[in-house]
Amino acid sequence: MRFLPDGDSMKAADKDTIENLGIPSLELMERAARSCIDSMKKEKLDFTDVLIVCGSGNNGGDGFAVARLLKEEGCAVTVFMAGNPAHLSAECRYQWKLFESIGGSIRDHYPDGTYSLIIDAIFGVGLSREVTGHYREVIEWMNEASGTKVAVDIPSGINAGNGCVLGIAFRADYTVTFQVEKIGLIFYPGKEYAGKVTVTDIGISLRTMEKNKNIAYLPDREEYIRMLPDRPEDSNKGTYGRLLVIAGSKGMSGAAFLNAMAAYRMGAGLVQIYTEESNRIILQALLPEAIITTYTEFDKEEVKRLLSHADAVCIGSGLSRSKTAKKILKTVLSNVEVACVIDADGLNLLAEHLKYTEYLTEGRFILTPHMKEMSRLTGLSVPEIRANRQQVLESLTKEWNVTCVLKDSRTLIGEAGKRTCVNTSGCQALAKGGSGDVLCGVIAGLLAQGISTFEAATLGTYIHGLSGETAARKKNSYSILARDLLESLATTDITNSNL
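^ that's the sequence the OP posted. Answer follows.
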């Protein structure tokens, strides 16, 4: 498990390390500076002419320490103090004096010239206000300059808690961050601004993060492997569950096919599709392994009968927002007694009829909204959600007692009482129609095999992302179709250490 803290959580860890483990702040600063230099050397960066731009806080202190160590090694180092000297932190002031004591000089204006390496040490992880005025001009100069760009801990101007750009941000080729990767370096656009990220161990204790369940995490590959359902030799199709797929309105057979085939690819024992009558022939041709049951009008007793035979359910993909679809959804929500995934039009109908949330009880439902669908469910704008995505997710899962997969380039998986999981598998190849239908089927297929809602959502999202990466290795990312993901699911083995 890798913790993904925000700025406040990182400060709490620093404080605990200093006050309770007895490691002085200046010692941590020295370790940070040395690890920064070692990381740059491993990347074989050019130290011919180095510019370091420092702020007045401890991030600036890291920058002064880097400057001193490089100067002691004989490098040509120019330091520009971008921060206000009247507001220096104690550690930054100390490092400033040390740098001056070895003959280092500090500029009070942006120095002209061409530099092989530009190091950003203006703001640290605590920045939350928009960058304006003098600081904005400095970052503009740095971005426009030639030379390799390196950020110390986090690019200045990136919010450590959500990855948003606070007006303007330093565009780094490399970022050296300390102890753990901050969540703002995982989310876009922060990830894009950070370039290649290296995490260095400088001895900061993670005890406070272990106790704080509000800090998100990234599972290790071994954790994903442990989530996989067992496949015993002595088994039959009933061992791996019966999934009911309720999907596909008239002309939307593809959504039902993608749901069902993905579930089969994930190991579900038997899949039954309940869909609009016009989809029967094409689905029988596309997926003869599935049982096809159809409707022409709403039949409450038929829906209840189908639910009674299912070990898991998924509903919503291509379902439409018709009166019939609404009645089917309400019947499922009020009668289902097994784990159930609600996707696409199921979510849109739920947003239109929020009174249906009264049926979301006992923690058996998984919602899979993308950002726009989450906006409809919560009444918040997409920018508002992006700026507070973890908090919005946690609020919804707690209020409605559901598991939620908040889909984006970085997907979050949340459940009341559990630490929020961040998924980083996947690539731009997944940005195609039908990809979400495949994800819904993957998660539902895992549910049918009896694993928990949170594990099914977490593991399913991870495997879905890997299938996109596998497809992109075989074809270019422009041409990937949702059906290619189905083929990739058959060849993606998460136990393979090369993934």
